[in-house]
């Protein structure tokens, strides 16, 4: 093995750090592995893929997304854990320095969205860093740089509290707060609540909504459904998230999104559609969530 390809979020960074410790491979590529990207990545038997969909050309694969489950033999591990970091940690029997035990516990919380009301109200460092990587509108080069910076800080065994004090990361967090405030103003004027689903149609402009803070304002909703303008012309992104602060029997969001060519977890998922299908797909999603 000579390279590691991981998802470009916090779980991907933690997964990369664990794999570096376990394998001593230092060549890491952060990716979404879209069909367009695959040609450039040169995936082969010397490639480890983690926190992304399986590719039959790779040598090892680690993942936990229900929408990525496969029925074929491969080297590595797939388990429906809260994070891919946990899958990797277990595969290597937890033979990591003590720092990585706590890191994996934090990623279980972050990647599954298991934040409490208190976590959100207090804006804890883990919550901040996780949603910075999930939602900030980085340019491609910016995202690559920030992911590599966080990976370096993790390999140096900095705590999440220390990581968010990094000057560059702190500047992004300040900008993210401004984007969130603008989006919340838009939401209060334009939201629709249909059968306990709060629908936020932002197809005119991509906005960054602070999902968990929306639940604090609207505690009775079951799901948040955000429709956002997508970078690709004539495309829209759908994001569906359960209300983590409400105890109810929720639908499997990852499976619903998979049926539209997307994916995710039981609690959160997303997909892309052509603009002209917005009304039809929205009606279908509301129906599936309300059954």
**In the residues, how many domains can be counted?**
2
In the CATH classification, which architecture of the largest domain applies? Alpha-Beta Complex
Report the CATH C-level class of the largest domain.
Answer: Alpha Beta
Report the total helices. 12
User: Rg from C-alpha positions?
Assistant: 19 Å
At a glance:
This protein has twelve helices and eleven strands. It is an alpha/beta fold. The strands form two sheets. The chain has a six-stranded mixed β-sheet with strand order 6-7-8-9-11-10, sandwiched between helices. A five-stranded parallel β-sheet has the order 2-1-3-4-5, with helices on one face.
Description:
- The chain is an alpha/beta fold and 291 residues long.
- The protein folds into 2 domains: 3-163, Alpha-Beta Complex (inorganic pyrophosphatase (n-terminal core)), CATH 3.90.1640; 190-290, Diaminopimelate Epimerase, Chain A, domain 1 (Roll), CATH 3.10.310.30.
- 45% of the residues lie in helices and 18% in strands.
- It has 12 helices and 11 strands.
- The strands form 2 sheets. A 6-stranded mixed β-sheet has the order 6-7-8-9-11-10, with helices on both faces.
- The protein is globular.
- The termini are far apart.
- The model has no long low-confidence stretch (mean pLDDT 94).
Keywords:
alpha/beta, inorganic pyrophosphatase (n-terminal core), Diaminopimelate Epimerase, Chain A, domain 1, 2 domains, six-stranded mixed β-sheet, five-stranded parallel β-sheet, globular
Q: What order do the helices and strands come in, and which of them pair?
A:
Blueprint: E1 3-7, H1 10-23, E2 28-31, H2 35-41, E3 47-50, E4 60-63, E5 76-78, H3 84-91, H4 98-111, H5 117-122, H6 125-135, H7 140-155, H8 160-163, H9 167-190, E6 192-194, E7 197-202, H10 211-217, E8 223-229, E9 235-242, H11 253-258, E10 263-264, E11 268-274, H12 278-290
Parallel strand pairs: 1-2, 1-3, 3-4, 4-5, 7-8
Antiparallel strand pairs: 6-7, 8-9, 9-11, 10-11
């Amino acid at each position: 093995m000579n390279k590691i390809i991981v998802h470009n979020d916090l779980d991907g960074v933690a997964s990369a750090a664990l794999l570096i410790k376990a394998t001593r491979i230092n060549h890491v590529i952060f990716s979404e592995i879209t069909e367009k990207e695959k040609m450039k990545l040169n995936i082969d038997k010397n490639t480890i893929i983690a926190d992304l969909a399986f590719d039959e050309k790779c040598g090892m694969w680690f993942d936990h997304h229900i929408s990525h489950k496969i029925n074929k033999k491969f080297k590595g591990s797939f388990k429906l854990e809260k994070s891919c970091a946990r899958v990797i940690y277990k595969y290597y029997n937890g033979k990591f320095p003590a720092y990585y035990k706590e890191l994996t516990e934090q990623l279980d919380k972050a990647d599954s969205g298991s934040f409490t009301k208190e976590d959100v109200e207090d804006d804890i460092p883990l919550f901040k860093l996780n949603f910075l990587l999930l939602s900030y509108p980085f340019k491609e080069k910016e995202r690559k740089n920030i992911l590599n910076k966080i990976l370096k800080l993790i390999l140096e065994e900095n705590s999440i509290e220390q990581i968010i004090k990094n000057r560059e990361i702190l500047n992004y967090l300040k900008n993210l707060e401004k984007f969130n405030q603008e989006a919340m103003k838009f939401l209060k004027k334009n939201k629709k609540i249909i059968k306990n689903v709060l629908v936020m149609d932002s197809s005119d402009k991509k906005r960054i909504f602070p999902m968990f803070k929306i639940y604090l304002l609207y505690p009775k909703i079951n799901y948040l459904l955000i429709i956002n303008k997508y970078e690709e012309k004539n495309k829209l992104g759908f994001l569906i998230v359960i209300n983590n602060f409400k105890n109810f029997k929720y639908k499997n969001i990852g499976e619903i999104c998979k049926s539209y060519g997307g994916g995710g977890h039981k609690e959160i998922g997303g997909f892309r559609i052509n603009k002209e299908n917005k009304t039809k797909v929205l009606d279908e999603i509301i129906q599936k969530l309300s059954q």
